[in-house]
Amino acid sequence: MKLWPQFGLRWTNGNPVGNDVPISATKRLKVTKTDKPGVIDDYVVGEEPLEIRVESGGTMSQLAVTMRTPGNDIELGAGFLWSEGLLRNREDLISITTCKDKELTLREQENTIVAHVRDGAPAIARTMQRRFTISSACGVCGSTQIEDLRERGCRNVAPCALPDEQLAGLPELMRPKQRIFDKTGGLHAAGLFNAKGELVVLREDVGRHNAVDKVIGYALMHDMLPLDEFSLAISGRGGFEIIQ
User: Is residue 211 within 8 Å of residue 136, measured between CB atoms?
Assistant: First the structure.
């Protein structure tokens, strides 16, 4: 470990650490390969906690803490609110920003976002009912009762307009855009495709549900919802927490 106390920085395994170091989607480590001699530099996916706060009428409350790969955090927060049914429409979300609380360190600010919502939005009542704690492996871990899942349920959607052969080729269209995967080989992706089978947006994250929420957040903030004429492709399995 190297120390630069005059800058408030520490370095370990080739990475800066400490409360005043910006977060990153990847980290460089010294690793030993089983099939190669010696020690080499390699990149792994970063994972950091993201706290989502909700503010309305001058009152702020903590809503959720999720483990995610840093990047597109504003979209992740917006997509999470929409996916959980905490927004009735786009107008419920006045703004969403990185936290500017000067009492927090730089790292804590980058790991905290604040959603400013209209009075009466479902997000206000929900912050009083339960808090979400979500790992990168589970998108329903904040649900305290089976009824919470049943209320949301699954709705009927229109059949996919893309031919089967075109649908099967969507992962190949996603692959060139998975830049963090190219660097690390260890995270998921979600891609949104239009009715022509063209890739509109792709997001990556160590958690599949986070990648999907980032895509939904992008769509929400670009006034694209509902996505009836779009298709979603994800790496890996499509579990309940995503399909719902």
Answer: no
User: What distance in Å separates the CA atoms of residue 209 and residue 187, rounded to the nearest whole number?
Assistant: 12
Q: Is the separation of the CB atoms in 189 and 234 below 8 Å?
A: yes
Q: What phi and psi, each to the nearest 5 degrees, are found at residue 210?
A: -70, -45
- For the chain, first and last CA: distance in Å? 45
The candidate with the shortest Cα–Cα distance to 214, out of 19, 25, 17, is 25
pLDDT of 227 over the 60 cut = yes
The pTM of this model reads 0.81
Instruction: Let me know if residue 159 belongs to a domain.
Output: no
Are 177 and 191 contacting, i.e. CB atoms less than 8 angstroms apart? yes
Report, as residue numbers or ranges, the catalytic residues. 138
Per-residue model confidence as pLDDT tens digits over 72-113:
999 999 999 999 889 999 999 999 999 999 999 999 999 999
Question: In which domain, by residue range, is 6 found?
Answer: 2-45
The answer on 183 and 102 residing in a single domain is no
Question: Are 130 and 122 spatial neighbours (Cβ–Cβ below 8 Å)?
Answer: no
List residues bridging with 29 in a β-sheet.
Answer: 42
Q: What is the DSSP letter of 207?
A: S
Domain count, the chain: 3
Same domain, 134 and 184: no
